[in-house]
UniProtKB/TrEMBL annotation:
Pfam families: HAMP (PF00672), HATPase_c (PF02518), HisKA (PF00512). Residues 79-131 form the HAMP domain. It comes from the Bacteria. Coiled coil: none annotated. It catalyses: ATP + protein L-histidine = ADP + protein N-phospho-L-histidine. This is histidine kinase. It comes from Sutcliffiella cohnii. Keywords: ATP-binding, Cell membrane, Kinase, Membrane, Nucleotide-binding, Phosphoprotein, Transferase, Transmembrane, Transmembrane helix, Two-component regulatory system. It is a multi-pass membrane protein. Gene3D superfamilies: 1.10.287.130, 6.10.340.10, Histidine kinase-like ATPase, C-terminal domain. SUPFAM superfamilies: ATPase domain of HSP90 chaperone/DNA topoisomerase II/histidine kinase (SSF55874), HAMP domain-like (SSF158472), Homodimeric domain of signal transducing histidine kinase (SSF47384).
Length: 357
């Protein structure tokens, strides 16, 4: 209805404008014709009056006919012009009702064509977000089902007296409980980085080498427990980034090594490249299938296809790494050769701004 109102308004306005132009031109032509006739004095007063009246009649008919033709022509072309807007309106109504609208095809390069292309891009992003949300819901349900089933099974057996409590059982229940807690905490962290920190980063000047060395020291005992030898070769550089965010990135990358290490060694390398500062974390771990080599930074991905929870974390650590580096306008990636994997992230040079004071 709003679309028709707009169409009719534009048609009426354009028709009135055309009518006014024709009327002004017609009156001017009529007056000029009367002037010429009076100048020649070839007609009597009655003939001049009849001539003037006839011109007035022709002018009225011409204006009415012109307005009608202008209205029809303008209505047709305005309808063609506004049809994409009508399609956009219907698509927006579908979105408001929670439905998925189809992609709108418009090959024009005008403003409406650009608007349509931006709308299509928005639709694709909305669908991607919805698909991601649906997949995340399924993954969360999948991740929670097994530990909850284990806990409920043990508790039911304890309640019915089938088994009696002992230290081993309590340790197992505690382990499942901590796994659930870790999963929830990492989901919360991922949500924070995706939403709360999406618009800005609290940059501060920091030494990347000192930051890496301090994070390695935090894991020194755990690395020794798992007999993992670590080598750190980092070119020092003063970078501007969110310190706690980079700590989280390094923590998750080191924990990834702890969860999947098979070679007993890891190496952390840091250096300046053409694009910015790059940090690599290399180790020997579980094989990653070729078709999955773009997946480790996706939510809930695990290298073991059986998704065995006795090995590996929640599958969210690298997703958090990806989000944090993305907020810093950086890049993440994986280079793998057989069982040797190199997870890397790069902070762009433009983040390296000079701080004063």
């Amino acid at each position: 209805m709003l679309k028709m109102n707009l169409m009719l308004k534009l048609t009426v306005i354009n028709s009135i404008v055309v009518g006014l132009v024709i009327w002004i031109v017609g009156v001017s032509v009529k007056d000029f014709a009367c002037y010429l006739i009076e100048k020649e004095n070839s007609l009597s007063a009655e003939q001049r009056l009849a001539f003037t009246n006839q011109l007035d009649s022709y002018l009225v008919y011409a204006v009415i006919l012109s307005i009608f033709i202008a209205a029809v022509v303008h209505f047709y072309f305005i309808r063609l012009l506004l049809y994409p807007l009508s399609t956009l309106t219907e698509a927006i109504k579908k979105i408001a009702k929670g439905n998925d609208p189809a992609i709108i095809y418009n090959k024009n390069s005008d403003e409406i064509g650009q608007l349509t292309r931006h709308f299509n891009e928005m639709i694709r992003k909305i669908k991607k977000v919805e698909d991601s949300r649906e997949k995340m819901t399924q993954d969360v349900a999948h991740e929670l089902r097994t530990p909850l089933t284990n806990i409920n099974g043990y508790l039911e057996a304890l309640r019915s007296g089938v088994i009696s409590g002992n230290q081993e059982l309590y340790d197992s229940l505690f382990e499942e409980s901590m796994r659930l807690t870790s999963l929830v905490e990492q989901l919360q962290q991922l949500n924070i980085w995706e939403n709360e920190y999406g618009s800005s980063v609290n940059y501060e000047c920091l030494s990347i080498r000192l930051l890496i060395e301090s994070q390695v020291e935090m894991f020194r005992l755990e690395l020794q427990k798992q007999s993992i030898q670590i080598k750190v070769s980092v070119e020092d550089k003063q970078l501007n980034a969110e310190k706690e965010a980079l700590k989280q990135v390094l923590t998750n990358l080191i924990e990834n090594v702890l969860n999947y290490d098979k070679g007993g060694w890891m190496e952390i390398i840091g250096f300046m490249s053409e694009k910015g500062y790059q940090v690599q974390v290399k180790n020997e771990g579980l094989p990653i299938p070729v078709e999955d080599q773009n997946q480790p930074f996706e939510r809930f991905y695990r290298a073991d296809l059986s998704r065995n929870r006795n090995l590996g974390g929640s599958g969210l650590g690298l997703s958090i790494v990806k989000e944090i580096i993305k907020i810093h306008n950086g890049e993440v990636g994986l280079k793998t050769s057989q069982n040797v994997h190199t997870f890397w992230f790069m902070l762009p040079i433009e983040n390296d701004r000079t701080f004063y004071g």
